[in-house]
């Protein structure tokens, strides 16, 4: 994700996540919607529902929230902040690959577990907390429908990520 770079190069977004976004940001969010739609369809076709329902639910929320940003050309900055979460996905996916390759008892897996947990706290938990705080502090500047969607999104994503964090912690560190 190019989000940290975008905030560095366009600090005005820090003050306005609703209407301000740099060139290319809208395209980045639109491509992200396409990725989530493709991944959603792939999971529907190739995985059992009981194995993937949480991720399908997650993707549905992201598709709706990012889709609104893309269609309205607003909240693109907020969507960019949300894309910071995806930095951690690199290590979550690497963890999955290492598990499938039966490399659980290797230094590589152990290192990835540590980096995964660290990036999880920084890029998932802290980002979601910051987004929830921003939404609450800016509730008077956000139309009720958008506020409802954003609040619902945060209310869904935050517990899902806390539960996943607990599962990772239990699986990789509390055995």
Automatic annotation (TrEMBL):
Entry GO terms, CC: plasma membrane
Topological relation to the membrane, as annotated: Multi-pass membrane protein
PROSITE patterns: TLC
Pfam families in alphabetical order: TRAM_LAG1_CLN8
Membrane-spanning intervals of the chain: 53-72, 78-94, 114-133, 145-169
Taxonomy, superkingdom: Eukaryota
Protein name (record): TLCD2 protein
Protein species of origin: Nesospiza acunhae
Name of encoding gene: Tlcd2
């Amino acid at each position: 994700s190019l989000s940290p770079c975008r905030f560095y190069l366009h600090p005005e977004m820090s003050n306005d996540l609703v209407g301000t976004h740099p060139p290319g940001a809208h395209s980045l969010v639109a491509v992200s919607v396409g990725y989530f739609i493709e991944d959603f369809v792939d999971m529907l076709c190739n995985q059992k529902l009981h194995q993937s329902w949480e991720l399908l639910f997650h993707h549905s929320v992201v598709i709706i929230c990012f889709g609104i940003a893309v269609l309205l050309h607003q909240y693109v900055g907020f969507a960019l902040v949300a894309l910071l979460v995806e930095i951690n996905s690199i290590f979550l996916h690497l963890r999955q690959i290492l598990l499938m390759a039966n490399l659980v008892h290797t230094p590589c897996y152990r290192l990835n577990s540590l980096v995964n947990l660290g990036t999880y706290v920084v890029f998932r938990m802290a980002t979601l907390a910051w987004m929830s705080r921003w939404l609450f502090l800016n509730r008077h500047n956000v139309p009720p429908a958008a506020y409802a969607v954003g609040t619902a999104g945060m209310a869904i994503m935050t517990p899902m990520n806390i539960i996943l964090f607990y599962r990772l912690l239990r699986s990789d560190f509390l055995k």
